[in-house]
Amino acid sequence: MRKNVIFLLISGLMFGFLMMFANAVLAQNSQPKNLQKSRNNPANYRDADGHELVFNIKDSKDTLVYLVIHYNEKLILKDSVKPSGKGKFVFKGTDRYDDGMYSLVSMDKKLYLNFILDNNQHFEYFLDTTMNVENVSVKNSPENAEMLRFQKKTAQASKDANTWAKKRKDFEAAGNTDSANYYKEKLSGLNEEMTAFINDLIAKNPDYLFSKMQKSYQNIDIPEYKKEDGTPDYQRQAAYYRLHYWDNLDLGDHRFIYIPSFEPKMKDYFLKLLYHQESDTINKYIDIFLAKAAKDTFMFHYCVDWLSYQFETSKIIGHDAVFYHIAKTNQLQGKCYWLDEDIIAKYEKRTKRLEPILIGKIAPELFIPDTSMTDDMTKWHSSYRMSKPYTILWFYDPDCPTCKKESKKMREVYDSLQAIGKRNFDVYAIANDSDIDRWKKYVRENNYPWLQVGGNKGNLDYLEYFNIYEMGNPAMFIMDNKDHRIILNKRIDMSSIPQFLEEYEKIEEAKRNRN
User: Fold this and answer.
1) Closest listed residue to residue 55, CA positions, set 66, 71, 70
2) What is the mean pLDDT of residues 242-268?
3) 80 pLDDT more than 80
4) pLDDT score recorded for residue 22
5) What's residue 375's pLDDT?
6) At what angle do helices 177-204 and 5-13 cross, to 10 degrees?
7) Average pLDDT of every residue of the chain
8) Domain boundaries, the chain
9) ∠ CA 477-481-485 to the nearest 5 degrees?
């Protein structure tokens, strides 16, 4: 797939000319302590040979400049220095900085320069306060020289593109088709020229971080799959794109953590492209992704932590199963060297509580008494013996304001569907109240049309099993009564219940058709 010229130029210019740092807040730590490299992480540690970064800024009036690194879409302060001479700023020390993309920021937090730090951390820049890339040069840093050559090339291309686009628009407005087409061809040629320039840069120095960055911006070429009738097979194309999304980005290189485009790329993939897929599908692609990241222990560390947080805190139905899968296959398999025993124990406890109530698990048969409880006679009711296709397990506290409000909303849905003969669920309402008299009073006063059980009695500790102690009241689960599997394990808006069940049936039918 070919990029158009506007997109291409923007992707290049973001590293030299966009004033994205004007209002940046500079944090005080290079990165969270648990992500810092050490000699215990040999794949990512390089022997310290110190650093000496010299920046000569013509006409500078700064009394302090900042050295910042890109991390998690933020700028993290690494160092700051005062001038050692007129407009001369020197960062010097016996330790090495982390490899990655850095920025030199003025005293009033305006961007001076973006540059790469890698094997060579002894070089000198010459620039001025105009922030014009044409006035910038560098000594003793071949990679930054290549980056600077790219920045100058894209700066000129941007000027040409703007000029030619305006001329084309003016000629089109005047009805001069020949001249308009002339500038259209010039724009197309510029795009091809820039594409060739970038491909040459990547080919000549494939291990440069800047080269790898440029490669990571290139689109994935997707085969033009066709169905038997000759029409495009978009489903197969989408599957190919999901599988090959990371082909142009080296996940075995932790330096990508320190460039501004990596976090957005992670978000686009996991929080947009895959976000509403079924948990099994997401898990499949996470395993593929982490297998590539595992080539670099520091990158693996970052990615496991990032994914765990995103899916543990997600409000999307089914994402708890993704978090469970990540934890069971990584944190609880001894792969995460940075976790201590206490943290591992928390993961074990969390996954143990999640496992029985994940979507797709068979819910246990509950036997709980209703309000007829007496010393002589107690009626016990099974959660399996319901007449409708689905059963809502509704955990509530009779004294809970939210429970009362949500129960009334559920009755509105229940009654409206009942009135038109389309109610396809029963409600098995479980009161979490040891005060039997208060519970009975609540049931009498509200007279809900569904089964009421509770009294903190039952054939098992259902509050523990369904993790109500942690989730709190009210809580909702929906079972498919064909095999009593859980199809919903968190509370949704009551008015959404009919739509949820309708969508569930469509998905199940689609699965059967695929099989």
Assistant:
1) 66
2) 95
3) yes
4) 36
5) 53
6) 40
7) 89
8) 18-130, 148-216, 234-357, 367-514
9) 55
Question: What is the average per-residue pLDDT within 236-241?
Answer: 95
What is the average per-residue pLDDT within 368-379?
Answer: 75
Q: Give the model's pLDDT for residue 513.
A: 83
> How far apart (Å, rounded) are the C-alpha atoms in residues 89 and 355?
57
- Residue 364 and residue 297: Cα distance in Å, rounded? 41
- Residue 361 · residue 485 · CB < 8 Å: yes
Average pLDDT, integer, range 240-257: 96
Residue 490 CA, chain-centre distance (Å), reads 21
Q: Are strands 475-480 and 451-454 parallel, antiparallel or unpaired?
A: unpaired
Can you give the three-state secondary structure of 145-197, one letter per residue? Answer: HHHHHHHHHHHHHHHHHHHHHHHHHHHHHHCCHHHHHHHHHHHHHHHHHHHHH
Mean local confidence (pLDDT), 46-66: 88
Q: What is the pLDDT of residue 373?
A: 64
* Pick among 2.40.50, 3.30.420, 3.40.50, 2.60.40: CATH of 18-130: 2.60.40
- DSSP per residue, 92-110: EESSPPPSEEEEEE-TTS-
Single-letter code of the amino acid located at 328: K
Instruction: Tell me how far apart the alpha carbons of residues 482 and 484 are, in angstroms, rounded to a whole number.
Output: 6
CATH code of domain 367-514: 3.40.30.10
Burial class (CB in 10 A: 0-12, 13-18, 19+), 60: buried
Q: Is the pLDDT of residue 409 over 90?
A: yes
Beta bridge partners of 56: 88, 126
The three-class DSSP label of residue 304 is helix
Give me the pLDDT at residue 18, please.
Answer: 36
37 neighbors 298 (Cβ within 8 angstroms): yes
CA dist 514 and 152 (Å) reads: 53
Q: Which of these, 215, 232, 231, lies nearest to 223 by C-alpha position?
A: 232
Dist. CA 286–CA 266, nearest whole Å: 11
What are 206's two structure tokens?
A: 């494939």
The rounded distance, in Å, linking the Cα atoms of 115 and 126 is 13
Radius of gyration of the chain (CA): 31
State yes or no: pLDDT of 395 exceeds 60: yes
